Amino acid sequence: MEPSVFTRIVRGELPAAKVYEDEHTIAFMDAGQVNPGHVIVATKRQVETVMELDDELAAAVFRTAARVARAVDRAYQPEGITLLQANKPAGWQTVPHFHIHVLPRHEDDGVTLGWPRKNPTLEELSVLARRIEVKD
User: Fold this and answer.
1) How many independent structural domains does the chain possess?
2) pLDDT at residue 136 above 80?
3) How confident is the model at residue 1 (pLDDT cuts 50, 70, 90)?
4) Domain-located, residue 122
5) How would you class 3 by CB atoms within 10 Å of its CB: exposed for 0-12, middle for 13-18, buried for 19 or more?
6) HIT domain: from which residue to which, for each copy (predicted)?
7) Number of other residues whose CB lies within 10 A of the CB of residue 38
8) Is residue 42 in some structural domain?
9) Is residue 127 part of a domain?
């Protein structure tokens, strides 16, 4: 797998404004700054999607995201915070390296996220649910 831009940041090959770093994760300011305080939380080890995270790495990255969100909330006092995590190109993933956006939000900040609701019946939802087998 080709090193992602985030892997290159982890290696120190590219500069970044770091916010936090531990054994498994790194957090740095998003170069695009949708709103001031927009942070990327990424795994240090390059895995592409949430489906590739083992339980330990998943816990570590979400723990870091929560810590960073609390810090962003204290520092910027936004009206809200959106955590966004995307997988595969059809799911809006643009960097092939697992990461979570911690995005401070304000009324009318221009950020949109929408999808058409289908509103299936409970019976239809139950059929869909039976197809999913969650494994430990």
Assistant:
1) 1
2) no
3) confident
4) no
5) middle
6) 5-112
7) 20
8) yes
9) no
